[in-house]
Amino acid sequence: MTSYLIIGAGNFGAGTALSLVKRPGTTKVTLVDTTAFPNPRAASHDVNKIVRDDYPDKLYMQMLKRAMPMWRNHELYKAWYHEVGMLRADPSKFGEESMLSYKEAGVHNESRFLSVDEVRRRWNGAFATADFDGLERILYNPTVGFAEADKALEAVVREGVDQGVDYVIGVMTRLIFGVNGECTGVALQSGESLYADKVLLATGARTAALLAQSAPDNSDLHAGDRLLATGAVSFYAKVHGAQKERLSVIPVLKNCLPQVKGEGMSILKDGTIKFNCDMCFTNFVQCPLTGQRLSMAPDEQVYNVWTGPKFIKFFQERARKTLNGLYGKEVEGIAIDAYRVCWDASTPTHDFLITPHPHSRGLYVATGGSFHGWKFLPVIGDYIADMMQDRLDPEFADRWAWNKKGGDGHSANPTYQVVGDLQDWLA
């Protein structure tokens, strides 16, 4: 019989808690986060996020082959999923590769290319003046869409609690180790300590810093170049009246052109449309306990949660450029209402890092969402639970390993690249 302690109630941690509490042999599952759920600082906590299964990467396609039917049909997820379709304006070979991936995986799909002229005419002309310069066709996938992220995450945590997960509010300060270096629990800022047979860090962008401050002198425990805390900018606007009606039919739009690089997430019932800038950035500062320079998610709320219509000038300008590129003249008079920096842990290949820690028995890591992990919410916990119980399929274990074998140059999420450092824009 085994007890589990999970730090972080984002989608990796919440999903794992729900999977573990339902498995035979589990004595106790404790899920710890810094606030009541869902935590507004978690990368998983958002207005909405894209849910799609058009992955050229066969490993993630395997996961989505299980996840998409759950988004559509499972009682826990289907209320939050909206299958509005998705357009992808992308000069790369992504469209051809994703359609081939569907075929090879035996997944039915209705993806097809539309001419730019057809995209401009359809959907009430919402994209009539969008920036599609240089493109002749745009990928259209009618059987994907978006989900209301904060509500779906809350539903998963609540279901875990209803099934017996113990949810604890607390701020982890460090891991606790036994005499042989094994991990036995965590210390909280309150002075309390929590113990379990197996400890999982599902702490996203804060993982590298937590490992470093838990063992400042033990570099074997540190993440090194495996993880980088990265931020990305989201923003939203509201439309009303006739414009709201006109935009009510629009699909998700992802525009990968360098002069746009962003996503529009379709419209919610209250007229909110959320957008992302497809770029990320670091935040290199000195780690207080080790003295080393680490990219760390800032503690200041303004750089973590939704904030008002005024923000860092660079981000305001970049967001406006993305918004104008996505919808053109349709959004000329629309003001941006709020901004958010979403922090996630990125890995060099944008693959997840889901692995036992090789230098501390009883310690496990599930992070590295790399800005594409959220859509796996219905199934990711099963994979992490399998990893913690030493029964994860070798194909996944090898790709997500602490000491990953080989570097084939691939990227599981190629559109999110580092463009700068937050400190440069704050200076």
Automatic annotation (TrEMBL):
Enumerate the GO terms in the molecular function aspect: flavin adenine dinucleotide binding; saccharopine oxidase activity; sarcosine oxidase activity
Write down the Gene3D superfamilies for this protein, in alphabetical order.
D-Amino Acid Oxidase, subunit A, domain 2 (3.30.9.10), FAD/NAD(P)-binding domain (3.50.50.60)
The FAD dependent oxidoreductase domain, residue ranges: 4-387
Q: Does the keyword Oxidoreductase apply?
A: yes
The protein in question is named Sarcosine oxidase
Q: Which cofactor does it need?
A: FAD
Q: Which family does it belong to?
A: Belongs to the MSOX/MTOX family.
Q: Which InterPro entries match?
A: FAD-dep_OxRdtase (IPR006076), FAD/NAD-bd_sf (IPR036188), MTOX (IPR045170)
Organism, as annotated: Moelleriella libera RCEF 2490
Transmembrane segments annotated in the record for this chain: none
Q: What keywords were assigned to this record?
A: FAD, Flavoprotein, Oxidoreductase
